[in-house]
Write a sequence for this structure.
């Protein structure tokens, strides 16, 4: 994993994550980890980025993250990427590339996180790799936080293996 710091147009420094064939830019004030957020292993966690440092708890199981939810403020944001270990040919054929436009909705909020909030679950593929991108924007997040989240997702690149 490599990290590099560059200034953004808005004056906030950006860092770059590059590892596991995945790269993206994020604000230097955000926190990135490659640790799992739960005991879920398929799909496997590749990274999580959030506005505050987060640590997995015993309560975080499978797709539900109530322990993470207690750590994330209502003004916070969380993005994570999971990669399927055993994707089927059918799953690969039904998924397209990562959409360039992020649509956040109230019905896509993650299990165990703040409600009401905005979120997205995005399944996509790159060659034979199959992913699920989870996005959560807290109900009291600022427009700046939303812009930072959208920029991170827009900068996400996944390379075939």
């Amino acid at each position: 994993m490599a990290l590099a710091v560059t200034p953004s147009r808005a004056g906030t420094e950006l860092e770059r994550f590059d590892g596991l064939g995945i790269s993206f830019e994020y604000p230097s004030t955000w926190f990135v980890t490659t640790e799992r957020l739960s005991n879920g292993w398929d799909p496997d966690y590749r990274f999580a980025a959030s506005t505050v440092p987060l640590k997995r708890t015993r309560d975080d199981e499978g797709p539900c993250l109530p322990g993470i939810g207690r750590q994330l403020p209502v003004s916070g944001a969380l993005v994570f990427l999971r990669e399927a270990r055993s994707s089927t040919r059918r799953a690969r054929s039904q998924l397209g590339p990562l959409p360039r436009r992020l649509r956040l909705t109230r019905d896509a909020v993650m299990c165990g996180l703040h409600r009401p909030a905005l979120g997205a679950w995005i399944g996509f593929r790159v060659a034979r790799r199959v992913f699920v991108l989870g996005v959560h924007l807290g109900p009291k997040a600022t427009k700046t936080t939303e812009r930072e989240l959208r920029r991170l997702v827009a900068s996400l690149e996944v390379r075939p293996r």
Notes: The longest helix spans residues 143-155. The chain has a mean pLDDT of 91. The longest strand covers residues 118-126. Strands lie at 2-7, 13-19, 22-27, 31-33, 44-50, 77-83, 118-126, 129-137, 157-158.
